[in-house]
Specification:
Layout lengths: L2 E5 L2 E4 L4 E8 L6 E8 L6 E7 L3 E4 L7 E6 L4 E6 L8 E9 L9 H9 L2 E2 L3 E6 L1
Parallel strand pairs: 2-11
Antiparallel strand pairs: 1-3, 3-8, 4-5, 4-9, 5-6, 7-8, 9-10, 9-11
Length: 131
């Protein structure tokens, strides 16, 4: 059974940092597209970072230069390092992952988010940034 478990959320002051983790079981991350999404109250879910083993990493403009996605395949875990946090970053953060089809490349951020979002999802972790 494929499972994703997010952790690392919490309450932090503006300007602070958090590192979210997305731990996988039931599959390995080394040939997958993995996306980080967030949803704030009353807002639609948005993709903020996505990576695939064949295409590299993508970031939404709202988090570029502040957030970094990375993976530790030995631990089967993907991380989202979040620096210079702002109150508008307050949301529930989710990871989603889907195995890449043989020979496929995603080629764009939009494709990466769409592709990953059809896969398995974690339960989410709350991030609250106080001003």
């Amino acid at each position: 059974e494929v499972q994703l478990v997010e952790s690392g959320g919490g309450l932090v002051q503006a300007g602070g940092s958090l590192r979210l983790s997305c731990a996988a079981s039931g599959f390995r991350f080394d040939d997958y597209a993995i996306g980080w999404f967030r949803q704030a109250p009353g807002k639609e879910r948005e993709g903020i970072s996505c990576m695939s083993s064949r295409d590299g990493s993508y970031y939404a403009d709202s988090v570029k230069d502040r957030f970094t996605i990375s993976s530790d395949n030995a631990k089967n875990t993907v991380y989202l390092q979040m620096n210079s946090l702002k109150p508008e970053d307050t949301a529930v953060y989710f990871c989603a992952a889907r195995r890449l089809r043989p020979g496929w490349s995603l080629l764009s951020a939009a494709n990466c988010y769409t592709y990953a979002s059809v896969g398995s999802w974690g339960q989410g972790t709350q991030v609250t940034v106080s001003s």
